[in-house]
Fold:
Amino acid sequence: MKQFVCSALVFLVSLILLGSTPITLANSGSRSAADEDNAREAVIRDLARDFSDRTLTIFVAVDGKPASDQFIKRFRDFKNPVKKDPKTEGFSDENGTGHLQNKNTKEPGVILNVEKLHWISNSEIELEGSYSCGAFCGGGSAFRVIRKAGKWVAHSVGPMWAS
Structure:
């Protein structure tokens, strides 16, 4: 009887462990860092549309920090220059106007930030996107980013704040 109980117990534990492995592998395999960057890019592109008709420098941030050089390269097709860090490019909002400007040329700038990534499913991500064009100029929205036919598409689900 002991041998039967031990065999049954080993069988049940094996079934549980083997049964859960494919689910774990399927979930982790379809939620990659590349997918997360693709979703972030979709939100930045959506935010940038509001500034595409203006002459200004766009700064891209991820989680409130300057984006990587690799991430910045995704926006080579923008007509406006896209940079990492306003401080290293001579931009500040401490100029009496309250707007982000280059200290020497007075050229305006805007910071586009994407943060708080949360997976909803293997094909859906929630993110927050915001823009800041100075001390009293900015806004943020919640985004739902959905993978359709292998491409991530951002949908704003509503404004969260504006200044």
Summary: Residues 32-162 form one domain. The chain has two domains: 1-30, 32-162. The chain is about 30% helix and 40% strand.
